[in-house]
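Re: weekly structure request thread

Next one in the queue (218 aa):
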Amino acid sequence: MHAIGGSGVSLARRSTRLTVVPVVAARQRKGAVSAPPLSVAAASLVRVRVLGLDPGSRATGFAVLECVGTVSTYLASGAIRTTADSFPRRLEEIFTGVSRLVSEYRPDEVAIERVFMHRNPDSAIKLGQARGAALCGTFSVEPKIYEYAPREIKLAVVGTGGAHKEQVQLMVKQLLRLSGTLGPDAADALAIALCHANTRRLASLVQAAGSPRTRTAT
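Done, posted below.
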């Protein structure tokens, strides 16, 4: 397996299956996944690597984007699939898989889906624990952590908070100009990463607009 734009990711533990989706990123032109240009030129030169995580006890989706100014470039995506029978061991596999990803890609910021209420309390607890294991796997590089609600993610990527998974997959591929198969776990992680990229871009625009150097005297 290999990641587009980066070297291969492998795990020392054979029990953890980390799958990198073999999608291909087309050459990005200036303006791909873009917003209006920033008011401060220096802000457009800031390079930030974002890791998107969609935790689950059986499969944890991941995605890595490189954000420079108004452009987000695809680096890798896939899923960490656990194989252990016991739940504590699956949590260990999630932690190990994310730790390996973080060591490989060294993200500056991590975006993750916020815990939501589940109809099944047991499932909600397991999801929360899987999320905790995934987050703990990122702490070695001390990234900034950002959380987003499911509807907020869909709204940022598709334009509606009630979008279906198929719509999310389609929009993610279009926005990042990807070809090939993109699994649902990887697509969700990419959506989370894109949501964060859009949010931080808007925050930069607001900050630039409010900077004393860019204000126009009245």
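Residues 1-15, 26-40, 214-218 have pLDDT under 50 and may be disordered. The domain at 17-210 is CATH 3.30.420.10 (Nucleotidyltransferase; domain 5).
Next request, please.
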